[in-house]
Prior knowledge:
eight-stranded parallel β-sheet, two-stranded antiparallel ribbon, TIM Barrel, alpha/beta
Amino acid sequence: MTILKAGARQISLSAPVCMAIINVTPDSFSDGAQFSADSTSSNFKPDMSKILRAIERMVEEGATFIDVGGESTRPGAAAVSETEELGRVIPVVEAVRANLDVCISVDTSSPAVIRAAVSAGAEMINDVRALARPGALEAAAETEAAVCVMHMQGQPVSMQDAVSYYDVVDEVTQFLKLRLQACSDAGIDHERLLADPGFGFGKKVEHNFSLLKNLSKLTVLQVPLLVGVSRKSMLGAVTNRSVDQRLAASVAAVMPALAGGAKIIRAHDVAATMDAIRVHCAYQNSP
């Protein structure tokens, strides 16, 4: 049985689970500004009642984790100050911890946000920069939170500008091996670690689908795999559908991810994703 240690929790990943996405940003690619109290302002002002209602629904639909992000990492996204990110994320973590029993993940690369979020009740750090920012690795190691390291070629502002791989599957695997080893060397227990191949982060459409097709090769990392393909441009490229019309494609992409060994599916649409997980499990467990 695969067990993930996340703070005081021990979460079974013997069957795949869903991580719900909560972006408290004005400019995320799919759901930017939907939780703002002021739609006319460029400054994000969290509407906590709206956020809590959305998270309650996601938990009811079957989410095991919620992933709170205060910095957009879509292609071309501008950097967010640490102060602004703290102001977006920490009130949400505090409100969720006070009202709901769900594992809170924070999507951040900032050492200050890592420390503050865990102090406020977060139990997982989900970092698109794989704890590479100065001080991030040490900040995560000070906590008991689970840690997910992700592969990204370049940085969000320019990651799609000059994408190049000789062998995307091997290069992603080797990068994640090095970052997981860095985590272990910093004192982060193996049972707290996860890896994410980073679909859409510094990758062309063909790279994304090659990773999806060969996802099982990443199980050599010997940590649970987290996969996020929900509504992404790789799906729009092959379906010619806009972000708000990619539910069917998102669910379709979840199935090969599950077959390839994904243990956590990060998604906007929890109910549909949970249906896909249940169908996969029934298929796997049938005689």
